[in-house]
Each structure stands twice: as C-alpha cells, then as structure tokens.
Automatic annotation (TrEMBL):
Lineage of origin: Bacteria, Pseudomonadati, Pseudomonadota, Gammaproteobacteria, Oceanospirillales
GO MF annotations, alphabetized: aminoacyl-tRNA deacylase activity
Pfam family for this entry, one: tRNA_edit
Parts of the chain that traverse the membrane: none
Domain YbaK/aminoacyl-tRNA synthetase-associated: 22-138
Protein name per Swiss-Prot or TrEMBL: Deacylase
InterPro entries: YbaK/aa-tRNA-synt-asso_dom_sf (IPR036754), YbaK/aa-tRNA-synth-assoc-dom (IPR007214)
C-alpha cells in the first residue's frame, strides 16, 4: 500500500494524520531516530504464524516480543515468527519490511502491544523506507480494531 493509497484510506475515514518523507531507513528504531520521533510511538509490524494463518503483531520500536507471553495471550497457541519472504506477496505494493500496521486491510488480525496502545499517537512506515505517517492512537485503534495484549519487553 503506497502512501497515496494509505492517505486516501485515512481521508475516506476522516482521520487526521501527518505524512513525512525522510532518508531511507530499514528498522523501526532507525526510522524513529531519522525522523526525531520517540521509539515509544514508532510502530514495528511483525508477521507471525498461528495455526497456519498469518497475524500482524504491532509493537513499538523500543520493544521486543516475549514469545511465551504472546503465546499465552493467544490462548497457548504455538507462535512462529515469519521470515519476510513468507509474506511479502501479501503486501504487493509495499517495499519489503515497510508495510503499514494495518493488517486488517490485508485480511490479517492485528495484535497490538499494550505498551504501544498506551501512547497518544502512532507513527509508522507507509509502504516505503522513506515515508512515514503519524496519527492519533485512538483513530488507529478505531480503524484496525486490534486485540491489545501484554507480550513485550522494553529494550
């Protein structure tokens, strides 16, 4: 989903946001640093597999997943981290590793970290390694209807 399609989706849903360009970055923490955004609000979408289905887990750049806690949050299901080549076809218009945290638009349930959900706003890649979008967390949650759970450790 290139930034134009994403912003059209946000506009259609009457969501306020800001879009910014920046030098190319390849991790959520690098993006946070390059754009002077706190790692607390910079989203890091991660694709996992549970029972043969992909789910999108969204954490802050400053968090890492505790897979035992994530498994517990998902009812004891076996959780497997997916490699990018396993899901890149599900995000056809996004640069690899830059998908926005809207798994719901790609038929994937969204699991949001409780820590990130407690922030006032969320920032994220908009389908490329050079564009981000910032919006209010309440609007993000309204659009994605994520399951919020505690499954991360700050680092």
């Amino acid at each position: 989903m290139p930034v134009r399609q994403l912003t059209e989706y946000l506009d259609a849903n009457r969501v306020r946001y800001m879009a910014h360009n920046h030098a190319p970055t390849f991790t959520a923490q690098e993006t946070a640093e390059a754009t002077h955004i706190s790692g607390k609000e910079m989203a890091k979408p991660i694709i996992i597999e549970v029972d043969g289905k992909h789910l999108m887990v969204v954490t802050a750049a400053c968090e890492r997943i505790d897979f035992d806690s994530l498994s517990d949050a998902l009812g004891g299901e076996r959780v497997r981290l997916c490699h990018e080549d396993e899901f890149e076809d599900e995000f056809p218009f996004c640069e690899t590793g830059s998908m926005p945290p809207f798994g719901n638009l790609y038929g994937m349930p969204v699991i949001l970290s409780a820590y990130l959900s407690s922030q006032d706003s969320i920032s994220f890649n908009a389908g490329s390694h050079t564009e981000i979008v910032q919006m209010d967390m309440i609007d993000y949650c309204t659009l994605t209807r994520p399951r919020v759970a505690r499954f991360t450790i700050l680092h």
